[in-house]
């Protein structure tokens, strides 16, 4: 499996592309406002995208969705595609997706009706299991954020490959996910000691409360950050746009 980092910035950052990545060219995670810039910068084949995952309804995670849908609409010349793309998101994902398309593109744009014929919407729920394709599936879990937010672990052939901790503060519930021992965990590491209020996981939290449970077996990849930086622990690496992480299956 190959995971390509499209962006690594949080909602407030020093000009980084917003957090997003794509696995094996078909599984896109997050659609931030600049998603089209990131997809084209990384020469992504849009026709290969089959699944879109949106962890929660904050603008830096899904405000780019209407422009991705619009481009797919134009690429298909407004005709039905030969397959349906699945959009996974919190409860209400279908209504939210259609609403943001109407706001971005107008009430009368033909893409609004085209969505119904070309997309399938699946709602995330804690402890849910979602089949992706062939022998791959997600196990979904809740994040500790101030709006409904979900992370996941990606399984193939009943074997965990990687996990994604979306926006969250530290919660001991994350320990149970760490103890599944995925090869890597891509995690929100937006928290800083200077933050006026703790609303994101910090490197210090991870080192103190999470890494000791990993038995040295997991590499943690920090994303959703304020500025590009280096880690202070051998099991942490901060991602950057264009980074490719290769994982054996």
Beta-strand segment tally: 14
Radius of gyration (CA) equals 17 Å
Strand adjacency order, main sheet: 6-5-4-3-2-1-14
Overall body shape: globular
What is the overall pLDDT average? Answer: 97
Task: Assign the CATH topology.
Answer: Metallo-beta-lactamase, Chain A
Instruction: Tell me the β content.
Output: 25-35%
Count of discrete domains: 1
Please give the share of residues in helix: 10-25%
Low-confidence stretches: none
Q: Which CATH first-tier class would you pick?
A: Alpha Beta
State the separation between the terminal residues, measured CA to CA: 6 Å
Largest sheet: 7 strands, mixed
CATH architecture: 4-Layer Sandwich
CATH superfamily: Ribonuclease Z/Hydroxyacylglutathione hydrolase-like
Number of helices: 7
Helix and strand sequence: EEEHEHHEHHEEEEEHEHEEE
Backbone structural class: alpha/beta
Describe what you observe in this structure.
The protein is of the alpha/beta class. Strand 11 (184-188), helix 7 (203-210) and strand 12 (219-223) form a beta-alpha-beta unit. The protein has helices spanning 35-41, 59-62, 65-75, 93-105, 111-118, 173-178, 203-210, and strands at 2-7, 20-23, 27-29, 51-53, 85-89, 119-123, 129-133, 136-142, 150-156, 159-165, 184-188, 219-223, 236-238, 244-246. The relative contact order is 0.16. The radius of gyration is 17 Å and the shape is globular. The chain has a single domain, classed as Metallo-beta-lactamase, Chain A (4-Layer Sandwich), CATH 3.60.15.10. The strands form two sheets. It has a seven-stranded mixed β-sheet with strand order 6-5-4-3-2-1-14.
